[in-house]
Every structure is written in structure tokens, then in C-alpha cells.
Design brief:
Length: 717
């Protein structure tokens, strides 16, 4: 039995017991009234019968109370005590004289009690019973006969009593019905309260479960962030060594080993770079899902970025794929994250190259849509003439780790992350990505970004490429792709960025626009030849101070020097002598910088000491934060190269101590780390370090560029 049922039963029991107590009072009151009526001569009273009646009624009320407590069916008990009441009234009528007695009025109490306890219909039925019993009693007493006045009087009394009490019984019956309805409503309300209490308890329990689940999610998110930070360091650190040592071996052994073995080394280098790209993609995807990806909007022109991506692809693919760039000259600058813009474009162009025949060009176009340069959008489209994609797969290709052909026999490789990252990077910056493709007709992937960034502006320290772009850019004027690759590789190993001009007019334009630190010039060019280019460079006030080094098959050093060339090399060029000459032309003739490398990874020391020593730098080593701080105080190096993730004293602590100590406060600190730097990390280090280099692909080129930039600043200070 439920708590609500138990409560309702208790209420009924209390009501029934109260009814029986009232019976005792009513019977006692009736007995007293009978005595008073007899004493006043209203009627004659048979005292013995009255005493028997009163005592019997008291006993029955006590018995009924006991039966109610024992749980006997209350409907049966109600019928019995109502019948008893009728009997006691009849005895009272008999004891007070029959037809002469006014005691018949007590039949009304029986009907009233019935109306109150059971209901109106039951009271009406009891009224009829009262009339029948009253008349029958008078017949038994010999006072009433068929057709005499006593019978008529008795019938008239009961009819009058019934009629006079009708409204009273109606009211009592309605009250009883209301009481029953109220009981039902109370029971229903009680049930609802119990249900509401149960639901509230369940909700509280669920809320507690959700709170606990939320705490677990927050803890999982914290552990995920910590895992990403650790994996960034643990995965990129060995990849840095693999890529770095492979680059050194490829550069140093190019002319010393068989072509087959050199090919092996290049495969190792390419595989390491490919694996690092996969690691970076997975970490980027995890950061986006965790809401940790930061956006750094900046303003830049689209055309040079497209050209640089095409140049990188030409060097990586080693294919005959050509690129058609269709970008109007009046295309406005765009404000967005430059690094992510390049990555998106690189992913789309590399896909286009991968899925296109080698003899088919890849077209890259950009268009502006808008009424003004501040509220429009720029759409960049990459179009290939490859295998195409069925319409039903257009949505699938943008999902993580999903590819159109995911079987073991698939023809094209890949992880299925490239396009997923493209979509997430673009949407993260308020843009959209679309694809238009059908089988056999090629594909056109387009992304649209607002001209003005809609991402929250995050302050940051300028990255390596931005800093290098103004101090380490070398313009290579060369129409032969293989010759350019050789010169660019040599420059890259020394920390220079290279940009290519294929003919004379392009060389003059790039020299004016990009302000390189030096120009290497081939004399045999389509269109305007190298001699004319040299004369125009030296006659233009904007370019006359740029050092020019001629690299050509034509041997005419005297004419070259007379026209203003700073040096003259005959192909095939001596790589080391070319680099040394460019270093002198761009860095002055001061002593090489002394470097202090603070890193716990011995492989990093071996890699950088080999590379930097070959470039003429004096490198000191420290393997812990404590020893690095002491060495910095003792040696006073020109530049400190600092790792952030070290056991014991971290790089953050070392940077703070170096900036707080008077002997080391002014030494530039170059952070070299495999840790993904958050905006909080950058803010913490912004006032302490000079620049950052990420361990991984092209680490040594970036590092050398940064060292050269700091060295140039030291010389000119």
C-alpha cells in the first residue's frame, strides 16, 4: 500500500470513529431529553425501555468503533449502524407512547446522518424506510388499522417530515458529495505531490549525475589539452631530428654518394615531412574540436600568397604540372589568418595536382564581390581537370578521415584530413567552402572569406616568416627550373627565403615590390635580357642599393662589374662561395654571433651544432635550465636559443630569470620549441623573448633566418 492510500484510509477511519463518538453524545442527549419530556408531562416514558435503549446504543457505538479499527468493511458497518439508528428511534417511539409520542422527529437524525456519511440518495432511501418502519410499529402496537385516523396521521407525519426535511437532506447530501469530491481531489493532489516529489528527486539525482558528468567532461577536456601539449612535444621532437639530419645529409652528400643512395635519403626526408604534416593535421583538428584553435587576423594581398604556394608545389611535386593564376590587379587586400589561408590553399592545390593528369594545368582564380572594400568577400577557386567526384560524395569528402575510395585498393593516398581542415579553418573565420564536380570533368573547390575578418583579433608576437620577409628575401632571376631549385636549396640551407622571377620584366617588378636583400641574376632570359635588367636595377633609385650577384653561363665578369654587379659566378656555381658572398653582402663584415643553445635533447644539439658551425657560428651548449642560466651569465652570448619543455626548470622560468638578471637582460632570446604555443603562452613570453621557431619541417631554415636577423640587428645597432 502506498503512502497516499495509507493517508486516505487514516482519514476515513478518523471520520468513522468521530461519527460513532457523536452517536454516544446524541444517544445520551436523547435519553436526557426523554427524561425531561416525561418529567414535564409531554409524554409518558417507559423508563426501563429508555435505559435499555440508551445502554444498548452506547455499547453498539463502542463495538462499531472497534470494528472500524479492525478494518472491517466500512460499507457493511455503515449499513448496520444506520439500521441500528432506525431501530433505536422505533424503540424510542414505542417507549414514549407510540402515536402520542413526538419522538418520531428523531427519524430525521437518521436520514441526516445517512446523508452526511453516505450521500443524498442513501438518505432518501432511509427516509422511505423510516416511514415504513414507523407505520409498521404503530400497527404492531395496535394503534393503527387500515383506514383509521392513526394510520392517516402517521402517514401525514412522515410525509410532512420528509417534505420538511427535503431541503435539509438535499443540502446535507450535497455537502457529502462535495466532501467526497474534496477527498478525491485531496487524494489526487496528494498523488500529484507524491509524483512531483518523486520527479523532483529524480531530477535532483539526474542533475547531480549531469554535474558529475560535466566535471568528468571538464577533467577529460583538461587531460585532452594536456595530452595534446605532450603529444605535440613528444611527436615533433623526434620528427625534428629525422627531418633535420635528413636535410643535412641530402645537402652535404649530394655529390658524394651514388644517386640511388641519395634517393634513399630524399625518401627519408619526404616521409618525415609527410608524417609531420599528418601529426600537425591531427593536432589542429583536435584543437578545433576542443575550442583551442586561435585566429590571428592580418591584412595581406592574395596574389603573392598564391604565387608562393604555387612555387612550393612546383618544388615538392617534381612534375610537369603547370599553374594558371587568374587574379585581377585591383583585387583588394584581405584580412584573415595568413597561416591558415596558406594551409587551406596548399591543401586544395595539392589535391588538384594529385588528382590531375600531369599534362593538364591547375587554375587558381580569385574574385571580389561587394560594394566596397570593407564589406565584401573574396572567393578563391582551385580548378583541376582530374577524375572528378560524384555528387553523392560531395558532403563526405569534408568529413574527418573520410575518403571517396577508402578501400585497400584505392589508387590515391591520403589521410582524409585535408579537406576536413579546409572546411573547419574557413568556417572558423566566418567563410564557407563549396565544391563543383562531376566524374570525368574535373573539380572546382572554392572558399569564400570576408574582406574584413569576423574572427576575434588575438594579439601575438610576429611569426618567423613575417620577420624574415623584410630582411632575408633573395630574388632569384632564373628561367631554368632546375637551376632555380639548386640556387633556392642553397639559399634555404643558409636561412634565406627565395622568390623566383622567370623573365626580365617580372624581375624588375618583384625587385621594386618585395625589396629583397639581394638579387641573383641570370643573363640569358626570355624577353629583356640580364644585362638590361642589371642596368635598370642600378638606375632605379628604389633598387640601386640592392646587391646583385650574376650567375650565368656567359663569362663576361668585367662588363658585369662595370654595370654595377657586386659579384659574378660562372655556372655551375660554387655553392659555398655563393653563400659566403651573399652573407657578406647582406650582413656586413662583423664577427659571427656567439650562440648559447639551452635544450635537454642531445639530438637537437647535434643537429644545430652541425648546421650552425658550418655557417661559421660559435655554439655553446647547456642541457638544463639551471646550467643554461649560469652559462648565459658567464658567457654573455649574442643570442640564446631556448627550449620551453625541459625537466626541472622550464623554459618559461629560464626566460623570466634571464630578463630579470642585469647581465642577461638585454640578450635576445630565440625560443625553439615543439610545444604548441597558446595565446596565453605568447602573452607570458612576449616581454621576455625576441622570436619563436617551431620544431619540425624547415626548422633549421627558420632558425638560421632568425639568427641572421638578430645578428643584423646587433651589427647595425
Amino acid at each position: 500500500m502506498s503512502d497516499g492510500d495509507f493517508t486516505a484510509r487514516e482519514r476515513l477511519l478518523r471520520f468513522d470513529l468521530a461519527t460513532q463518538r457523536n452517536h454516544i453524545f446524541i444517544y445520551s442527549g436523547g435519553f436526557v431529553l426523554a427524561l425531561i419530556g416525561s418529567a414535564l408531562g409531554v409524554f409518558e416514558l417507559q423508563l426501563r425501555s429508555a435505559l435499555l435503549l440508551w445502554s444498548s446504543a452506547i455499547v453498539l457505538a463502542i463495538v462499531f468503533s472497534a470494528l472500524y479499527r479492525r478494518g472491517v468493511n466500512r460499507k457493511l458497518l455503515n449499513a448496520l449502524w444506520i439500521g441500528g439508528d432506525i431501530f433505536f428511534v422505533c424503540v424510542g417511539v414505542y417507549a414514549t407512547g407510540g402515536i402520542e409520542s413526538p419522538w418520531f422527529i428523531w427519524y430525521l437524525t437518521t436520514s441526516s446522518a445517512t446523508a452526511f456519511v453516505i450521500g443524498k440518495r442513501a438518505a432518501q432511501f432511509v427516509s422511505v424506510i423510516n416511514a415504513v418502519v414507523y407505520i409498521a410499529l404503530l400497527f404492531l402496537m395496535g394503534q393503527a388499522h387500515w383506514g383509521n385516523d392513526v394510520l392517516y396521521l402517521a402517514f401525514t407525519r412522515m410525509l410532512f417530515l420528509g417534505g420538511a426535511s427535503f431541503l435539509f437532506l438535499e443540502g446535507v447530501g450535497n455537502l457529502q458529495e462535495k466532501r467526497i469530491q474534496i477527498r478525491r481531489m485531496e487524494a489526487e493532489e496528494s498523488r500529484k505531490v507524491r509524483e512531483l516529489t518523486r520527479v523532483t528527486e529524480e531530477l535532483n539525482a539526474r542533475t547531480e549525475e549531469l554535474s558529475e558528468a560535466n566535471r568528468r567532461i571538464q577533467e577529460a577536456d583538461r587531460l585532452k589539452s594536456q595530452f595534446l601539449a605532450n603529444m605535440s612535444h613528444e611527436l615533433r621532437t623526434p620528427m625534428n631530428s629525422i627531418i633535420g639530419f635528413s636535410e643535412i645529409l641530402v645537402d652535404r652528400l649530394e655529390t658524394r654518394v651514388e644517386a640511388k643512395h641519395l634517393s634513399f635519403l630524399r625518401h627519408i626526408l619526404a616521409s618525415g615531412q609527410h608524417l609531420l604534416g599528418i601529426i600537425n593535421d591531427i593536432l589542429d583538428l583536435s584543437k578545433i574540436e576542443a575550442g583551442k584553435m586561435e585566429i590571428y587576423p592580418e591584412s595581406f594581398a592574395v596574389a603573392p600568397v598564391v604565387e608562393s604556394v604555387c612555387h612550393v608545389m612546383r618544388g615538392m611535386t617534381r612534375t610537369t604540372t603547370t599553374f594558371i593564376v587568374d587574379i585581377p590587379d585591383d583585387l583588394p587586400r584581405i584580412e584573415t589568418d595568413l597561416a591558415k589561408f596558406k594551409q587551406v590553399l596548399f591543401n586544395l592545390v595539392s589535391n588538384a595536382v594529385k588528382f590531375s593528369p600531369a599534362d593538364k594545368p591547375v587554375r587558381i582564380s580569385a574574385r571580389y564581390i561587394g560594394s566596397s572594400e570593407n564589406d565584401g568577400t573574396i572567393t578563391v577557386a582551385v580548378q583541376d581537370q582530374g577524375i572528378g567526384i560524384e555528387a553523392k560524395h560531395h558532403a563526405v569528402i569534408f568529413e574527418e578521415f573520410r575518403q571517396v575510395d577508402g578501400t585497400a585498393k584505392r589508387e590515391f593516398g591520403g589521410t582524409g584530413l585535408g579537406l576536413a581542415l579546409v572546411k573547419k579553418f574557413i568556417e572558423l573565420q566566418g567563410g564557407r567552402v563549396t565544391v563543383d564536380s562531376s566524374p570525368g570533368e574535373g573539380s572546382t573547390f572554392s572558399f569564400t572569406l570576408p574582406v574584413q575578418s569576423r574572427a576575434a583579433v588575438v594579439s601575438r608576437t610576429p611569426d618567423t616568416e613575417e620577420l624574415a620577409s623584410t630582411s632575408d628575401l633573395v630574388l632569384v632571376v632564373e628561367d631554368d627550373a632546375h637551376a632555380y631549385d639548386l640556387i633556392a636549396a642553397a639559399l634555404r640551407s643558409a636561412g634565406y627565403l627565395s622568390i623566383r622571377a622567370r623573365h626580365g620584366e617580372e624581375a624588375l617588378k618583384l625587385a621594386r615590390d618585395s625589396h629583397p636583400v639581394a638579387v641573383t641574376l641570370d643573363l640569358v632570359l626570355p624577353g629583356v635580357d640580364g644585362w638590361e635588367v642589371l642596368k635598370r636595377l642600378k638606375s632605379d633609385p628604389n633598387t640601386r642599393e640592392i646587391p646583385v650577384v650574376i650567375i650565368s653561363m656567359v663569362d663576361n665578369r668585367e662588363l658585369g662589374v662595370a654595370l654595377g654587379a657586386d659579384d659574378y659566378f660562372i655556372k655551375p656555381v660554387d655553392r659555398e662561395r655563393l653563400l659566403e658572398r651573399i652573407r657578406r653582402l647582406t650582413s656586413g663584415h662583423g664577427p659571427r654571433a656567439r650562440l648559447l643553445l639551452i635544450d635537454d635533447d642531445a639530438a637537437v644539439h647535434s643537429l644545430l651544432e652541425e648546421e650552425l658551425a658550418a655557417l661559421g657560428y660559435d655554439v655553446e651548449s647547456a642541457f638544463t635550465g639551471e646550467s643554461g642560466f649560469e652559462s648565459a651569465k658567464d658567457l654573455s652570448p649574442d643570442v640564446i636559443i631556448l627550449d620551453l619543455m625541459m625537466p626541472g626548470m622550464s623554459g618559461f622560468e629560464v626566460a623570466g630569470m634571464l630578463k630579470d638578471h642585469p647581465r642577461t637582460a638585454n640578450i635576445p632570446i630565440l625560443v625553439l620549441t615543439s610545444k604548441d604555443l597558446t595565446n596565453d603562452d605568447r602573452r607570458e613570453l612576449q616581454s621576455k623573448v625576441t622570436s619563436f621557431v617551431q620544431k619540425g619541417q624547415s626548422t633549421r631554415e627558420q632558425l638560421v633566418r632568425e639568427i641572421r636577423r638578430l645578428e643584423q640587428r646587433r651589427i647595425t645597432a
